[in-house]
Design brief:
The protein is of the alpha/beta class and 424 residues long. The protein folds into five domains: 134 residues, 3-Layer(aba) Sandwich (Rossmann fold); 87 residues, DNA polymerase beta, N-terminal domain-like (DNA polymerase, domain 1); 44 residues, no CATH class; 54 residues, Beta Polymerase, domain 2; 60 residues, Beta Polymerase, domain 3 (2-Layer Sandwich), CATH 3.30.210.10. Helix content is 46%, strand content 9%. The protein has 17 helices and eleven strands. The strands form four sheets. It has a four-stranded parallel beta sheet with strand order 2-1-3-4. A three-stranded antiparallel beta sheet has the order 9-10-11. It has a two-stranded antiparallel ribbon with strand order 5-7. Strand 3, helix 3 and strand 4 form a beta-alpha-beta unit. Helix 1 crosses helix 2, helix 6 crosses helix 8 and helix 15 crosses helix 16. The longest helix is centred in the C-terminal third of the chain and has 26 residues.
């Protein structure tokens, strides 16, 4: 095995230098003439592909370096049927039905046996469907369903949602169960919504969801009603429910959860306006901020605004940690155009660390926001220019001496405000 690995590395190095050619590689006896294998490099890498190629040839298999008309078996690793099919389209293959599309597990089984093993269903990427050309259009969803993982981390889900009418309904149902603190049914609808967002086709009949994971009886009932009636009576009932509407409003306030919403609902409160008007409510620090900035927090943020904020954060962080990396995360990183907040990940690749970084950044912004208004006052009311260099009187055309903040306030004719009183 070590010799095989060594030869693979040497061949790879020669190929990088322009000296490698399949025609110049060692020739091996071909024992199994009916099998012509092509190993896909996609998601595998050059070195591993070369190693597997050499291994198969040593055992008497014919392995082609290029995809040609003589190839009978295509082997892929960590590629789904749809991904292989998409790759084949890019290779301008006329009729892909002539190929056996197989998982790497088939290749491994052949190497262990020292001979070709039957390409059973468990090895086939296409399952029971022999090729896309032989699959009736009506059977494509069920073919795909057999390949869908129950775990979202194993599903590539883009923003192209072909089943929005279903997923919107599921999310409403999930939210309602969350308000009722029923975690089981909440997760059932959330997982179903995640799964339907993944599907590369629109569900139009119950047969389309046959074989899919994460589809419980409740979910199935909602799907069936939407297919037959165009909408779900259960979802309509939720949207018209007084408790749901109240909780929906209450939880839109930053710092307010289900427990607090329940308490306020039992007090007879129903809207955010009623909450604001009730002076008897005991609010936490976060809830006070939530009401104070309510309109800003519930409004949407565009991608352009997120990019602008990212630039501000990067510039500020670099003031304290020049080598730090600021990466936008969350929905905008996933490609969304609108969001309700902006998430950042700040990392420092260098040896220097700063546990107080976030406090320093926020404190600097607080100082700048006070300073911005002070500069605006100096310009509009006193005809002066206040910047990092000093205080300049445009009328007298002189810089005013100031050794402290107190003196700047005095020059502007303002009462001095202590730093802890500047949290405007």
């Amino acid at each position: 095995m070590d010799k095989i690995k060594a030869s693979g590395v040497i061949s790879h190095r020669k190929r990088q230098k322009g000296l490698y050619s399949p025609k110049l590689s060692c020739s091996y006896e071909i024992k199994f003439t009916k099998f012509v294998i092509f190993i896909m490099q996609r998601k595998m890498g050059t070195t591993r592909r070369m190693f597997l190629t050499e291994l198969a040839r040593r055992k008497g298999f014919r392995v082609e370096n290029e995809l040609s008309d003589s190839v009978t078996h295509i082997v892929a690793e960590n590629n789904s049927y749809l991904e292989v099919l998409d790759w084949l389209k890019g290779q301008a293959v006329g009729d892909s039905s002539r190929f056996e599309l197989l998982d790497i597990s088939w290749f491994t089984a052949c190497m262990e046996a020292g001979r070709p093993v039957d390409s059973e269903m468990k090895y086939r990427l296409m399952d029971q469907c022999q090729s896309p050309l032989n699959i009736p259009e009506s059977e494509v969803p069920s073919c795909i369903a057999r390949k869908v993982s129950q775990y979202s981390c194993q599903r590539k889900t883009t923003l192209n949602n072909y089943n929005k009418k279903f997923t919107d309904a599921f999310e409403i149902m999930a939210e309602n169960y969350e308000f009722k603190e029923n975690e089981i049914f909440c997760l059932e609808f959330l997982r179903a919504a995640s799964l339907l967002k993944y599907l590369p086709f629109a569900v139009t009949r119950m047969k389309d969801i046959q074989g899919l994971p994460c589809i419980g009886d409740q979910v199935r009932d909602v799907i069936e009603e939407i297919i037959e009636e165009g909408e779900s009576s259960r979802v309509k009932e939720v949207l018209n429910d007084e408790r749901y509407k109240a909780f929906k409003q209450f939880t839109s306030v930053f710092g307010v959860g289900v427990k607090t919403s329940e308490k306020w609902y039992r007090m007879g409160l129903r809207t955010v306006e009623e909450l604001k008007a009730d002076k008897t409510l005991k609010l936490s620090k976060m809830q006070k901020a939530g009401f104070l900035y309510y309109e800003d927090l519930v409004s949407c943020v565009s991608k352009a605004e997120a990019d602008a904020v990212t630039l501000v954060v990067k510039n500020t962080v670099s003031t304290f940690l020049p080598d730090a990396l600021v990466t936008i995360t969350g929905g905008f990183r996933r490609g969304k155009k609108m969001g309700h907040d902006i998430d950042f990940l700040i990392t420092n690749p260098g040896p220097r660390e700063d546990d107080e970084l976030l406090h320093k950044v926020v404190d600097l912004w607080k100082k700048q926001e006070f300073g911005r208004d002070l500069r605006r006052y100096a310009s509009h009311e006193r005809k002066m220019i206040l910047d990092n260099h000093g205080l300049y009187d445009r009328r007298k055309r002189i810089f005013l001496k100031a050794g402290s903040e107190e003196e700047i306030f005095a020059h502007l004719g303002l009462d001095y405000v202590e730093p802890w009183e500047r949290n405007a």
